[in-house]
Specification:
alpha+beta; ten-stranded antiparallel sheet; two-stranded antiparallel ribbon
Amino acid sequence: MRFLSGVLVIGMGFIATGCVTGRIEEPKYDVIARHGEMEVRAYVPRLLAETVVEGNFERAPSEGFRRIAGFIFGNNKPGKEVAMTAPVEVIPANEKADEKAEKAAKIAMTAPVTQEPSGSGKWTITFTMPSSYTMDSIPRPVDGRVTLRQLPAMKYATLRFGGFNTRANVDAAIARLRDAAAGQGLKLRGEPVYARYNPPWTPWFLRRNEILIEIAE
């Protein structure tokens, strides 16, 4: 069983990022096959917290991050904090939030966080929740724009690439992944999912990004 490493950081100045990925739980997957730079993965079922935002590719995710960060830091019922551990740490903006964080139950969040198209200038920003939670036991978001969703076991064609998170760079990676999948006779469906793993100040040559596209059975 393999694990995703890292977490998406969506270019926001209000987060601080660490580099101790070994301490966080991550969505489990098996590597079914490797074909050049493409990896075929089978993921286990997982629970997501997500929100849909409008805006361009580079800037829209910041609003989505803020909404879900609010859910993580106690804007939920019954007010339990879902604490993001490394490699991303959300720093509360005021002392009152700090005090609340000390008292709240800590719930380690998994990685990665993803971004995918959601129609006509909209984007879905997604955080994977810890495997210890079910749809019945996870705290409920107070913000109606944040929703919870259960995903079944799924298979993805994936491709890892570096560089800056420009639309041109991402589109080129998507094209490479689609070509690689077609070369292996894989039928894909749905929109590409884009995962970023580094803070915005990371040099381009150290960045890790991934594209995931679901494989149609």
